[in-house]
Amino acid sequence: MKLTAKVKLKPTKAQAELLKRTLETANAACNRMSALAWDAQQFGQFQIHKLSYHCVKAEFDLTAQLLIRCIAKVCDAYKLDKETKRTFKPLGAIPYDSRILSWKMDKDEVSIWVLGGRQKIKFVAGDYHKSRLVHQRGESDLCLIDGNFYLFTTCDIDEPTPKDVEDVLGVDLGVKNIAVDSDGQVHSAKAVNNVRYRHRKLRTKLQKKQTHAARRKLKRLSGKEHRFATWVNHNVSKEIVDKAKGTNRGVALEELGGIGDRVTVRKAQRATLSSWSFNQLRLFIEYKAQRQGVKVFPVDPRNTSRTCPGCGCIDKANRPTQSKFSCVHCGFSGLADHIAATNIRSRALVNVPYIPTAPQCRDKANVL
After folding, report:
1. Which end of the chain is more exposed for a tag (fewer CB within 10 A), N or C?
2. Residue 54 to residues 39, 47, 49, 239: CA-CA distances in angstroms?
3. What is the Cα–Cα distance from 188 to 178, expressed in whole angstroms?
């Protein structure tokens, strides 16, 4: 499987200026190539190369291989659609390959081409990312983020063959609770929601001030909430996958794609719903499970929180409150998110061989 390692470069002041000028020049070359491709309405990589290579090389002081990477960047930009002319920010990321970037792991430095020739630049990375760099393959993207230069590089990690499982751990993703599994374990979203509420209130207050000090504070706060939510999602996903692997189970998740377009909420809840990072958590669970050899089973999310696992009754009235489930037919009750996780597990069991299917497991699911 392919994962990304994030490496922070530690250039000198002169090297930082060269890196910045290289980004600006390369993106200017991309804009020139995009204009030529748009005028000719030719968007294939070979076509863009034929249209622009020689004239752009004569106009910009870039090495041949970096120009090839720029052509690939322009071509990829037009793959989404060809209805809009693509333009590139002056300091946008630029891809490097092994011909213009090499890693010196023993010295913690990279040899990278910049305007004027190659430079050897020191880098720093945590132990986790350094362990990935041993498997570095393919391209690396040079990025400028908040005044610091980073390399995001592709690493080809060996993955174990998924094993046959004995059961499935159902996981319900939510707003009040980040995740609740079919064993009844609750991963609360209270800490994340408190941080989001505090930052939202602080941003509103600072934006009203319209002062230089307020803008500086807003800049310092930028990304802090997102980083905290990402850290929490990493921890929750790791715990879920480790639990499933330790008990020889797969993980069952709802297919929630497009939920933002389907679900409507009150005005007061819009900000909370829009900041819900369920997709990130789902992706984290999937790639960590893949690395651990744990199978993931996607299930249909319809009515998982309205279906009674005891009698099978489906009714909107089964959810009298956000957190409570109470069946109007048989009186079965419990935590709504736990009920949903149990139903997700039951739906996934039909995809697991040698295990009783969902209807046969209903008695087991009733013990909450």
Report:
1. N
2. 17, 13, 8, 54
3. 6
User: Is 222 buried (19+), middle (13-18) or exposed (0-12) by CB count in 10 A?
Assistant: exposed
Q: What is the pTM of this model?
A: 0.74
CA–CA distances in Å: residue 14 to residues 18, 51, 113, 114, 307: 6, 35, 14, 11, 64
Q: For domain 167-189+230-365, which architecture applies?
A: 2-Layer Sandwich (3.30)
Q: How would you classify residue 248: left for phi > 0, otherwise alpha for psi between -120 and 50, otherwise beta?
A: left
| pLDDT(101) > 90 | yes
Q: From CA 356, how far away is CA 340, in angstroms rounded?
A: 19
Q: Is 363 a residue whose pLDDT tops 50?
A: no
Domain residues of the chain, as ranges? 2-156, 167-189+230-365
| Residue 37 in this model has a pLDDT that exceeds 90 | yes
Structure tokens, 113: 């081409």
In sequence order, the 6+-apart residues with CB closer than 8 A to the CB of 240 are 169, 171, 179, 181, 187, 251, 285
Nearest-CA neighbor of 5 among 99, 94, 136, 145?
136
pLDDT digits (tens, 9 = 90+) for 319-349: 888 788 888 888 888 888 899 999 999 888 8
